[in-house]
Design brief:
single chain; 327 residues; D-Maltodextrin-Binding Protein, domain 2; 6-stranded mixed β-sheet; TAT_signal
Amino acid sequence: MNLTRRDSLRWALAASAPGLWLTAAQAQAWPSKPVRLIVPFAAGGTTDIIARVVAQGLGEALGQTVIVDNKGGAGGALGTQELVRQPADGHVLGMATVYTTASGRAINRRIGYDPLADFTPIINIAATPNVIAVHPGFPARDHASFLQLLRRSPGKYSFSSAGTASIGHMQMELYKSLSGAFVTHIPYRGSGPALNDTVAGQVAMVFDNLPSALPFIKSGQLVPIVVAAPQRLAQLPDAPTFKEVGFEPVNRMAYYGIVGPKGLPRSVVDKVAAAVHKAADQPEVKKRIEATGSQLILNTPEAFAAQIRAELAVYREVVERQGLKLE
């Protein structure tokens, strides 16, 4: 049987129509089963807290249970590696931080994924200020005298952080590169031991997230020097921001967002973003997130993608300029 070109086109369209209809139906039906939200850190940290606070409202908005799955290890790399191996159907998402999307890859090209190619950014939920705090016995208690002392005594003092390539480590290296100060880095396996040794006087200072450092500051066991935040914090009204002391590039907060594997359909991205907004509108959710010392961001997928690119570029430059390597 001879078919005209027009007949052939009709047959092709007819054959493909069921497939097109199925794809659209699948997108509309998502999620068709519980959604797994990978947290690439152990339970109890700020990333985990924010994930769990949002998960319930997110599940209610999506009509499916959202299961928080802690997959810690390698500073967040192991759980993130698992995320990027998942199919792009929206049923497995992941929490993203500065380490998993920027600083980790900046210092370790073998981390197992490319933040710019292997993720679908969805939304930055919240961000947390960071703080340099010193032991009460440290000779300086304000930024001017703090910096003067460090410049006068290069290498005499050390600082603790939650680990190599943690935001505290990278921000202090950025500060050092801009200020001309030199302080030795002492990496720990998490904020807890870093703070404990600083409080005990084993290390002179710590650069850490505000939520974990704040209880020690409130109790007088640590003294805040300067904070990385858009403006002064109500909790620390006397501590200036890095912008105020002339080092605005260090005013970078830790963030906690949601990403999917690469190739996630835009319809799924939009549904997740809308569901997070709906969850964050609940007064109790907002209250619990702000109780961690975090500020709600709730930006667009495009804005979050731009933020990831910017953070990666900043910390790649820090690594190169400071000659940083994995310890």
